[in-house]
Write a structure and sequence with these properties.
Distance between the termini: 97 Å
Number of helices: 9
Oligomer: single chain
Strand order of the largest sheet: 2-3-1-6
Protein name: RNA-binding region-containing protein 3
Keywords: Nucleus, Repeat, RNA-binding
Order of helices and strands: HHHHHEHHEEHEEEH
CATH topology of the domain at 79-188: Alpha-Beta Plaits
Helix content: 40-55%
Radius of gyration: 32 Å
Subcellular location: Nucleus
Main location: nucleus
GO molecular function: pre-mRNA intronic binding; U12 snRNA binding
CATH superfamily of the domain at 79-188: RRM (RNA recognition motif) domain
Structural class: alpha+beta
Length: about 200
């Protein structure tokens, strides 16, 4: 008994269960992948334009695309064009006109300065008209461009937009845009109550 006991304990079964299903599983997966590839190619073919293959746009992209093409007539600048000719933040820092730049308090009027002398109202309309829905009579009437061509206000303009949201978007996208080799400085126009604000600021200090 004494000799048999350890022998009995020492016998341990080590088993390897190799199933014949593995290759089949792999095959199924590869078949699935092939099918996915087929779906992808058909999708890509559907999305192809002029020989280029575009990935299926996600919902966010489609929203942006819709926004990009959202009733902005071709007579106005595109967002791509704005971005292409706009200074980066680092480049802006090199220009003295952007020193101590403050966008100001949001309102529906924007103030543009550092305009080249050859800038005309039509140039400003080409840029800022994209923020106005010209099918709406109210928005059309709200859109107002006042370009100063003489005196000490020369090279500056005030532009009235339909609402604060449109003005904020215009400021974000057009500030630093290089027009006739000069970058525009775009800010919110000051409201009619700057004195009251400065007094409040002094009280707080």
């Amino acid at each position: 008994d004494v000799f048999e006991q350890p022998q009995h304990v020492g016998h341990k079964k080590i088993e390897f269960h190799i199933t014949t299903d593995i290759p089949a599983v792999l095959q199924i997966n590869s078949e699935r992948e092939e099918k996915n590839d087929l779906y992808a190619t058909t999708e890509e073919m559907n999305n192809a334009g002029f020989g280029k293959i575009f990935p299926t746009p996600t919902s966010n992209d489609t929203m942006e695309l819709e926004e990009e093409n959202d009733e902005i007539p071709s007579e106005f600048i595109s967002r791509r064009e704005l971005e292409k000719n706009r200074l980066s933040r680092e480049e802006m820092e090199k220009f003295s006109v952007f020193k101590n730049y403050e966008p100001g308090d949001p309102n529906c009027r924007i103030y543009v300065k550092n305009l080249a002398k050859q800038v005309q109202e039509k140039d400003l309309k080409f840029i800022f008209g994209r923020y106005v829905d010209f099918q709406s009579e109210m928005e059309r009437n709200m859109f107002d461009i006042r370009l100063m061509k003489e005196g000490r206000m020369k090279g500056q303009a005030f532009i009235g937009l339909p609402n604060e949201k449109a003005a904020a978007k215009a400021l974000k996208e057009a500030n630093g845009y290089v027009l006739f080799e000069k970058p525009m400085v775009v800010q919110f126009a000051r409201s009619a109550r700057p004195k009251q604000d400065s007094n409040e600021g002094k009280r707080k200090k």
